[in-house]
Amino acid sequence: MAASCVALLALALPLLLLVAWKRWRWGRAARHVIVVVLGDVGRSPRMQYHALSLAKRGFSVTFLGFCTSKPHDELLQSDRIRIVRLTELQRLAVGPHILQYGVKVVFQAVHLLWKLMCRKPAAYIFLQNPPGLPAIAVCWFAGCLCGSKLVIDWHNYGYSIMGLVHGPGHPLVLLAKWYEKLCGRLSHLNLCVTNAMREDLAKNWGIKAVTVYDKPASFFKETPLDLQHQLFMKLSRTYSAFRDCSEPSDPGMERSAFTERDAQSGTVTRLPGRPALLVSSTSWTEDEDFSILLAALEKFEQLIDDGERLPPLVCVITGKGPLKEYYSRLICQKHFQHIQVCTPWLEAEDYPLLLGSADLGVCLHRSSSGLDLPMKVVDMFGCCLPVCAVNFQCLHELVKHEENGLVFEDSEELAAQLQMLFSKFPDPAGKLNQFCKNLRESEQLRWDESWKQTVLPLITDT
Description:
By secondary structure, this protein is an alpha/beta fold. 42% of the residues lie in helices and 17% in strands. Strand 8 (253-255) and strand 9 form a beta hairpin.
């Protein structure tokens, strides 16, 4: 018995000493914040924006997450932000699924706790949820040890996303819901992305949250024509959809599928008879059904074959995710004559340029909880790009039908909207240009200014 007590003390003593040392140092680290994402930093734009806004207000920021794809240059260039890589454990290839998941959760819990304890003390830990299992409990525990306040940024409910894969009644889903509801109450401060989610958190979870709407960062804006041409020429080296099908009659002209540049004067102009550029972005998950878009494109193709005055389309679907191969196979099975579909993964700096060069955005995001909003639409609106979006519960908080875009229910309605918007394209008096004008005149608040008004007072007053 005595030997067991000695062994336990030997294990606990280093941790207790570390805790005491960190608490002693905490007073000197009040301007330090840790941002945590149990996901890819490069594909977590909202948390990147939190980090940038904190850095601009004089905080030093440690950003913990997976480093699969490149974040925005502004994040990498900030001398106040340090990115710390978390190790991503791939699922085991053997054993029952629940065992594989359990091993992954235990590894992530131990690994994340170790990384948090090895950092200098922080006044706040900003955590993205989902994924919150096991991150909420681990960050709360680390905060208790080190005197840090936990801030949860609710983007959605993790259990609802799991329910798309396993079904809402699956034991794992029910366990995740219980955990999320229990541990979510441990935070010092809660942020969320919609008023609908704020009300649901208060009513069903007993959690008081502040709505912080997604807003576009300053680099989401309309792309000047010369930069559009540079982007199209860059992408044409990899993707045939961006290449001009015919050789220019003047050898001094440089052409993409959409633009041409006079080599002598440097003047860039849009090609007459150019295709329309339609853009969508996705994480290729179960909450986005791209068969709706493919079916609408088939109907659009049929309309052209029937003699409707419609332009050819280049449809660009950007992103990475588990269902990309499945939909890529479906796309390859289509035999479009007037439509080209490509599915690139763009560099962080090229994505805003593409949105600012496009004619129309399409969003197929159906919220698993019905309570979050698609950030891709926020980014598109920042670029004054009108959107056709599939309808769900709280979409009206973002997309105003017939004002900044259109809302549809199915592929038939989307096909009819594409026909109406691209009729007589490019038509300066058409509905598409009217939506663009409405977006320009709306003078949208940008992320940093919105963050300054909503989040900064919350962390300076506590």
